From TrEMBL:
Domain Mur ligase central: 105-293
Name under which the protein is recorded: UDP-N-acetylmuramoyl-tripeptide--D-alanyl-D-alanine ligase
InterPro entries: Mur-like_cat_sf, Mur_ligase_C, Mur_ligase_C_dom_sf, Mur_ligase_cen, Mur_ligase_N, MurCDEF_CellWall_CoF430Synth, MurE/MurF_N, UDP-N-AcMur_synth
Domain Mur ligase N-terminal catalytic intervals: 25-91
Functional description taken from the UniProt entry: Involved in cell wall formation. Catalyzes the final step in the synthesis of UDP-N-acetylmuramoyl-pentapeptide, the precursor of murein.
EC number: 6.3.2.10
HAMAP family attached to this UniProt entry: MurF
Pathway in which the depicted protein is active: Cell wall biogenesis; peptidoglycan biosynthesis
An annotated GO BP: regulation of cell shape
Length: 456
C-alpha cells in the first residue's frame, strides 16, 4: 500500500466510527487466506458470502482491526454504513496520494485488450500497475487501486459494469487523469435497455475524471457528441477511420491479412506506417486508442511506436492455436458482445481454408436476444463463413438465420459441447475454426478438448 493509515484516519475517510484503540495499518485486505499481519480486514458482503463471519479469524491471523457494518465481538473495529462503499473510499484515498498518471478504460468492446496493450507499452518506460483478469467492478477496482506503491510510475485501470450506477462509483474511486472510452454497443442490454443507456453509464467515467483530464474517444461511435459534451472543459482527443472526421488520429489506410494488419495512421498531418502483429479492424481501433494515451502522457511517438506494433495477448482473446489434428483454432472465448462477435468473424474470414464458426449464446441482451442472434447468423453468412455450429437453443437462432442467408454454407445447432467436438475433432490444417460465446456459455471447454488430450 502506498501509505500507512491510522484507524482514526480510516474512520474519517469512511465516515465511520472507531471502536477500540487507535493503531496503524499497513495494508487493507478482504480475504482471510491472504497475509493479514498489520492489515485492516474489510468484511465485504454479497449475495453468497458475508465477510462478517470471518472477522474473528482475521484478528487471530494478525489483522490490526476489522471494518464492519455492525458491532462484532473483537477488540478493535471501524463501524461504517456500507463496507463496500468504505472499501472504495479507502482506495480513492490511496489513489489521491499517487503522483503518476492514472488511466481509466471502459467501453462495450475492446477495454480489456486496450488495457493490457497500454500497460504493456507503458511498462517499457515505467513500472505500471494494471487491472488483473476481470477485476473491473466495485470490488476489483478498489483492490487494484490499493495495490499502488511508491515503485509504480503509472496505473491502467479497467472499469466495467453490470448494472446502472456502477461506473459513476468506480469513476469517483479512480478520478482518472486520462479516460479511454472505446465504444458503446449492445452488451448488457438487459440491464440498460438501450445502447443510449449503456453510453450514459460508460460516460460517467468522463464526468468523474479530474478537471484537467484528457478524454480519448472513438469519433466513429454514434454517441461521440454526447461524450464530448460530458467532457466539458477537459481536453478531448479522438480516433477515427473516417478521413474527414477531424479526429486527432485517423486511420488513412488499412490492409488486413490472416496474421497481421498493415496500416497508415495520420497524426498532425504526418502519415505513420505501422504493422500490427494481430489481424482485424478492431485491433487498429485499439492501437489508435493506445497511441493517443501514450501521447497524452507526454511520450514521443518515436519512443513507443515499435512497442505499439505488438499487442499484448489476452488469454481467450483472439488466441491463434492449433488443434490436435492441425486445424487453426481462434480462441475468442473470454466473453462476447454483438460487436465483438462481428469483429471475430471478420478475422475468421481472413483465414485460409474452410471456415468454421462455433458460437455459444450471448447473454444479457434482454428483449433483443433473438433479433441480435439472428443478425449475427446473417452477418457470418455475408462474410462468407462456410460452416456454423451453435450451442444451445438461443444460439440456434443464429444457425437458422445463417442457413437462410448463406447460399453455400452449412449450419448445425447442437445441444451439447460433445456434439460440437464431434464435428471438429478430425479437421486438418486446411480448416480454420473460431470459438466464441459469452462467459456463461463456457466455450473454452471446447477449446481445451480440441487442443489437448484432457477430457471435458
Amino acid at each position: 500500500m502506498l501509505v500507512t493509515l491510522s484507524l482514526e484516519r480510516v474512520a474519517q475517510i469512511c465516515h465511520g466510527r472507531l471502536v477500540g484503540a487507535d493503531a496503524i495499518i499497513s495494508s487493507i485486505e478482504t480475504d482471510t487466506r491472504g497475509e493479514l499481519t498489520g492489515a485492516l480486514f474489510v468484511a465485504l458482503s454479497g449475495e453468497h458470502f458475508d465477510g462478517h463471519a470471518f472477522v474473528e479469524q482475521a484478528m487471530v491471523a494478525g489483522a490490526v482491526a476489522v471494518l464492519v457494518e455492525r458491532p462484532v465481538n473483537v477488540s478493535t473495529y471501524v463501524l461504517v454504513a456500507d463496507t463496500r462503499e468504505a472499501y472504495g473510499l479507502l482506495a480513492n484515498h490511496i489513489r489521491q496520494q499517487f503522483q503518476g498518471p492514472v488511466v481509466a478504460i471502459t467501453g462495450s468492446n475492446g477495454k480489456t485488450s486496450v488495457k493490457d496493450w497500454l500497460a504493456a507499452t507503458l511498462a517499457h518506460f515505467v513500472p505500471t500497475l494494471k487491472t488483473q483478469a476481470n477485476l473491473n467492478n466495485q470490488i476489483g477496482v478498489p483492490k487494484t487501486l490499493l495495490g499502488l506503491s511508491a515503485q509504480h510510475g503509472a496505473a491502467v485501470i479497467e472499469a466495467g459494469t453490470s448494472f446502472p450506477g456502477e461506473i459513476p462509483k468506480l469513476g469517483r474511486y479512480i478520478q482518472a487523469d486520462i479516460v479511454i472510452l472505446t465504444n458503446a454497443s449492445g452488451s448488457h442490454l438487459a440491464g440498460f435497455g438501450s445502447t443510449r443507456g449503456i453510453a450514459e453509464e460508460k460516460g460517467a467515467l468522463i464526468s468523474t475524471a479530474k478537471p484537467d483530464a484528457t478524454i480519448i474517444l472513438n469519433a466513429d461511435d454514434p454517441h461521440f457528441s454526447y461524450w464530448v459534451a460530458l467532457a466539458g472543459e477537459r481536453r478531448v482527443w479522438s480516433f477515427s477511420f473516417v478521413q474527414d472526421s477531424g479526429a486527432t488520429l485517423i486511420c488513412q489506410d488499412a490492409k488486413f491479412f490472416p496474421n497481421h494488419s498493415d496500416v497508415t495512421l495520420l497524426l498532425n498531418g504526418h502519415s505513420i506506417p505501422l504493422r500490427l502483429q494481430r489481424p482485424g479492424r478492431h485491433q487498429v481501433a485499439n492501437a489508435m486508442a493506445v497511441c493517443l494515451a501514450m501521447l497524452a502522457q507526454g511520450y514521443d511517438l518515436a519512443e513507443f511506436l515499435s512497442h505499439l506494433s505488438v499487442p499484448a495477448q489476452v488469454p481467450g482473446r483472439m488466441e491463434m492455436l492449433t488443434t490436435k489434428t492441425g486445424a487453426l483454432l481462434v480462441n475468442d472465448c473470454y466473453n462476447a458482445s454483438p460487436k465483438s462477435v462481428e469483429a471475430a468473424i471478420d478475422v475468421l474470414a481472413l483465414q485460409a481454408g474452410t471456415s468454421w464458426l462455433v458460437l455459444g449464446a450471448l447473454g444479457e441482451l434482454g428483449e433483443q436476444e433473438a433479433e441480435i442472434h439472428a443478425a449475427l447468423g446473417r452477418y457470418a453468412a455475408q462474410q462468407g463463413i462456410q460452416h456454423m455450429l451453435t450451442l444451445g437453443p438461443v444460439a440456434a437462432i443464429a444457425a437458422q438465420a445463417f442457413a437462410q442467408e448463406s447460399k453455400a454454407g452449412r449450419a448445425q445447432s447442437c445441444a451439447t459441447k460433445a456434439e460440437i467436438i464431434t464435428f471438429l475433432a478430425d479437421l486438418d490444417q486446411h480448416n480454420a475454426v473460431l470459438v466464441k460465446g459469452s462467459r456463461s456459455a463456457k466455450m473454452e471447454e471446447i477449446v481445451q478438448q480440441l487442443v489437448s488430450q484432457e477430457p471435458i
